[in-house]
What does this fold into?
Amino acid sequence: MKRIELSHGAGGERMGELIKKYILKYFGDGSADVPLHALDDSAVIDGIVFTTDSHTVQPIFFPGGDIGKLAVAGTINDIAAMGAVPVAMACAMVMEEGFSMEDYEKVVASMAAVAKEAGVEIVTGDTKVVERGGLKDMVVTTSAIGKESKHLKHNFEVAGRKQEWLRDSMLKPGDAIIINGTIADHGIAIISEREGYGFEGEMKSDVAPLNGLMETALKEGGVVAAKDATRGGIANALNEMAEKSGVGILIEEESIPIRDATRAACEMLGLDPLAIGNEGKMIMGVVEEKAEDVLEIIKKHRYGRDAAIIGRVVEGKHVVMETSIGGKRMVEMPVGDPIPRIC
It folds into this structure.
């Protein structure tokens, strides 16, 4: 393959191949606590958690959010997934000449509102404008730094395991897999708005900052791994966690929360909801003896009301789903995201 394709930026198997073949070939040999080659949600160096993300979603305004809300929440969630508290953010915007000043202010105001909710300051940034037709509307890049949660040490003490960061590679057989709510809402909201499908029901993105929810879970204790299920959906996230941990994961189809309207839209479009991206969903690995306690406490949080235990970590090396009709099927890592440009 001689040229970049959309699937190379879609968060699935193809993007993983690109990173491993070209990025890790040149970078990632440093002495970071959690280095680049770990391919976690954030890196950690000298105790400082650091992450960056670019956002190209189309359309930039969609049911439940916009590119600004998405950029801030998504980057905060990458910090929170490590067991860290976001401290400060940077933002760079590249806009097309002729972009509406009214829409520009809406995006900035949205970013400010999410940052305020999450208790994070946006402290620096950059602005560029390209010629008309150079891109569509705008691209937003956000970066953030964070520090270890004050609850992280206690969290691992409760788990009975040596303290580390919440890395993808920390799962062990017996751990429960918890998700904080319904899946596939974001991707379906984007494609419905973009293509004008007009699906019935309240179709809204789930985009939200999850640092508060993660702090609640860490305070309860027993969380050993976490990953926000963005591009490639929970299928991609679970496969990454299983591969890095050297374990298998068995999930139950009937336990996975999904809205009826979202399920119906997926069936109509021939899409697997497990492979559709989310922007407000965190997958947590929790030691078995604390799983029900963590579930109960996060269900009291505004972003965890539909939380559920969806499976368990098992011996092996695959992600398998027990279907609602009693059979089992492999849950493969998607090659790419079935709905492009959702983040």
